[in-house]
Write a structure and sequence with these properties.
alpha/beta; Carbamate kinase; 249 residues; binds guanosine-5'-triphosphate
Length: 249
Amino acid sequence: MNTLYICTTFNRTMQYKRILLKLSGEALMGDRDYGIDPKRLKEYAQEIKTVVDKGIEVAIVIGGGNIFRGVSGAANGMDRVQGDHMGMLATCINGLALQSALEDEGVYTRMQTALEIKEVAEPYIKRKAIRHLEKGRVVIFGAGTGNPYFTTDTAAVLRAIEIDADAILKGTRVDGIYTSDPEKDKDAIKFESITFKDVIEKGLKVMDMTAFTLSEENKLPIIVFDMNKNGNLLKLVSGEQIGTIVDYK
Ligand code: GTP
């Protein structure tokens, strides 16, 4: 039955040269109800260091949901644009925390933001970001796309396309894409790989539609994997069958 769902012929032995890692803000909470868990932050920094040490170029987009979510602000009566601006600033807070944790591990980093806060971080400049990556620095992109109504998933896809990343790696707490929610349905079956078309036809949720379509149109593969499992990130970039890959083939 499992093989029924293996829809693509993408070569998973591929080794990645440049990746865009998308992390959720909530993941940084660890076991907390909000904010940043220093232990989780350190673990993530250590995981990222293992791939940097392999010579893989790493760019990161991180969400801000552990601090503030624009959508939930709007649901509580707040102006949506105002809420989204707060969310963008939340991603900068997470980005700075991650930058600090990475530097503690001896990883060279640069942070660039889509909203200008020059005293805090460099403004986003595509060419400069690519140069940093070529020099082996991890580049953290803060403030999403810099526009309200867009998610950090969309920011991640946009930046990945701009820097010509080989794939977008979406680190989550589940180990891939399933036929239904594996946390609610014990019969859920995991896809090893699936096409963009099948994700839409089967009504599966990988990213919001804006992000997903942008990725599809630009033939950027998305890999959903469990970032909380030690060693997973390194295995994935080394070509092991980790998580689920969404590809166009
Ligand atoms: P190369 O010289 O090209 O290798 O890159 P570099 O990033 O080392 O050079 P640059 O002189 O641009 O930056 C030196 C330091 O200043 C780095 O830590 C940058 O992140 C930081 N920096 C550069 N521009 C800005 C800025 O506009 N705002 C802030 N806050 N920091 C900046």
